[in-house]
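can u pls check wat happens w/ JCF
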Amino acid sequence: MQLEQARHRAEALRQLINKHNFQYYVLDDPSITDNEYDILMRELIDIETDFSDLITPDSPTQRVGVSPVSELKEVKHLAPMLSLGNAFNEDEMRAFNKRIKEKLSVNSLVFSGETKFDGLAVNILYENGLLVTAATRGDGSIGEDVTHNVRTISQVPLSLFGENIPHLIEVRGEVVMTHKGFTALNDRQRDKGEKVFANPRNAAAGSLRQLDSRVTAQRPLAFFAYGIGEYKGKTNLTSHTSILRQLKEWGLPVSSDTKRLNGIDACLSYYAEIGAVRSELAHDIDGVVFKVNEISQQRELGFVSRAPRWAIAYKFPPLEEITQLLDIEIQVGRTGALTPVARLSPVNVAGVTVTNATLHNIDEIKRKDIKIGDWVYVRRAGDVIPEIVAVIKEKRANVSDFNMPNVCPVCGSDVVRQEGEAVYRCIGGLSCSAQNIQAIIHFASRKAMNIDGLGDKLIIQLTESGLISTVADLYSLSKEQLVTLERMGEKSAENLMAALEKSKKTTLERFIYAMGIREVGEATARTLAMRYKSLELIEQATTGELETISDVGPVVAFNIYSFFQQKHNLEIIQRLLLAGIYWENNEDEINLIFSGMSFVLTGSLQVMTRDEAKQKLISLGAKVTGSVSKKTNYVVYGENAGSKYEKAIELGITTLNEESFIKMLEKEK
Ligand code: JCF
């Protein structure tokens, strides 16, 4: 290729790639596939390898990082980077409102509201549209030069595009890390035996202040612009919201949660709205920033020390706190799996007192190097169970190692760990009261025997009072016994007795599922019921025979076989049948309503996935095929259904939209 030709092609590629970068990283709306993007990148890299003079500082190839610097140099900001005053409650917000209304002698005010990202503030200087330097906030006047690192953040444009590009502009924003990126980074760090970060903010800061930008390039950093500093150029920026709009038009990422707000009450509602969705956001935020929207009013208000009078951060409580790990206890589940649970010194995390955190399994404890007595960061993200993020090693003193017990803490049976499994199990089976309670809970559950009103708490009450010890005992309960329980009235006792009676009529598949055989879920239970049609035959099946059933592998076959080898289990089954549990012994009872019928699914379904619909149909005896023919009985179509739908119409086959399909399933239940 000739130099001139290469120059043109490289320029075109850069523009194209930068556009796709913007669509992907800023708008979150890519218009080409990753593969197509890679091909464009590849071509540009090839040209720049052949003609190194053509490499420009804003080339998208220049984001991979460069050789390490020896230290971070100092950079003086052209305009100082301000800090923000804080408000912690409504009164302080109203005082802020009153203060500025008086200063401006106005009756009403328009604010802008935005989420306050919990990351690291940076100042990016663009000259004639090109990224020149990027610096941390530092003390507000002088920061550290992190240009080499900020260049690796895909969201940050290396050159601005669009209209009215100023001769010079300082863009202010926050470098952050998503929760997802943070978790993945910490996992990688642990695997490599390197430092883990306590929270996304620290991880973002650590990543941004790297000397080696090739490391930064591997870190999942994001950037949001929230304002400008020094500015030289034509301007029509008269409000904060217009600044944000303009930044976005130049290709800078701006938070989508920004809102123009009329008066203080609208601000307070906005704060509540953001607070309600805070835990669902991809990034940590530590509050909401309110600004007087009009720039002319901002000028009039001015500053107190280093903070603008016209802005305030209304803070949220932190989602993460430090507390001490007092002990690690073991919970025993239905299948005997032992789960370690952290007992914490009670700590209030964003309004909720946290005393426990899940530790998942021993591998997790080892990975995070958690020891009893450690000081730890606990984090509450959304509704999920609180988690220990990391240990504060510096505070470690008088700690003890945690080991999985050799015997079950509930029943004293042996504990075993199968090869390749992370899980330890108590082998006590139903003689272990913990497993027994979970087994009864499973037995009574909706998809099993469906005993209405028999919930977890009541089952624990019944076992602890000695009224029942196995599922078979449920059917010998009397109303007189039930009313002796705390919080159990006449009416509730009667209801439970009726629910027990009603549950006696069941199906073979429900009954098998209710037994709680390990790894025998609804689907396997149904298969077994359809295949054998009788409990006696399943009881007598050998592992070899069971393995011939599709979806039943050696492990499940063994689980089924050994379940029925145990005398205890056979006795319970006997007692249940004697108590009057029954099902019809013929095929019809197994609800094969679509037996012999052929279905085709096409288009995208909204309520269930196509796979779920397929499983459901198969379980009801239908055949689900990929193409429409004269033998097809029904075509179920979702959105954007194409040729299969047309073919069905052509052949005069009944078509069902999703709604009618679901209605049909419900009617047939
Ligand atoms: O998101 C932020 N962390 C944030 C910080 C947003 C803003 O609008 C800010 C800020 C710090 C100072 N505005 C100023 C003036």
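The chain has a mean pLDDT of 91.
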